[in-house]
Write a structure and sequence with these properties.
The chain has about 140 residues and is an alpha+beta fold. The protein folds into two domains: about 30 residues; about 90 residues, Nucleic acid-binding proteins (OB fold (Dihydrolipoamide Acetyltransferase, E2P), Beta Barrel). Helix content is about 30%, strand content about 35%. The chain is built from three helices and seven strands. It has a five-stranded mixed beta barrel with strand order 2-4-5-7-6. β4 and β5 form a beta hairpin. The longest helix has 28 residues. It is elongated.
């Protein structure tokens, strides 16, 4: 029915497609553990399921909510609809301030308490590091 060349090409094409599909599947499976989901306080508050994996919570640091205790920092992240209390042990970035954007990475204790491993402060597109700003002002 088909010649020898045609059968070899079909086998070759099917083999290549199988290898590509298996490679993509293996890569996606390996990356699955590194995915960290981003949620807002409102999404966490409205969620009926118990979130046990590591997530990121983002929003603004509520005004007058930062409390420094010995080695811990307590503050509230808000999205202006809902709020979540955050506990973090460690040093915070220089851009971490009240009424500024922040992303906290960690685990959810309950729907109102978040234990953070890492704090990422966000800045707007007009941000310039102080050293660069000073050098530009001097020139």
């Amino acid at each position: 029915m088909y010649g020898k060349k045609v059968r070899l090409r079909i086998v070759f094409i099917i083999s290549i497609l199988t290898i590509i599909i298996l490679s993509v599947y293996i890569i996606l499976k390996l990356l699955e553990d590194d995915v960290i989901y981003f949620k807002s306080p409102t999404e966490i508050n409205q969620s009926s399921e118990n979130i046990t994996e590591k997530i990121r919570v983002g929003g603004m640091v509520k005004k007058d909510s930062i409390i420094l205790n010995n080695e811990k920092i307590l503050f509230i992240i808000t999205d202006f609809k809902n709020e979540i209390n955050v506990i973090f042990a460690g040093t915070v970035p220089n851009l971490f301030q009240e009424e500024k954007g922040v992303v906290a990475e960690g685990v959810l204790q309950d729907n109102n308490l978040f234990i953070a491993d890492k704090i990422l402060a966000k800045h707007d597109e007009n941000y310039m590091p102080p050293e660069v700003k000073e050098s530009l002002e001097q020139k």
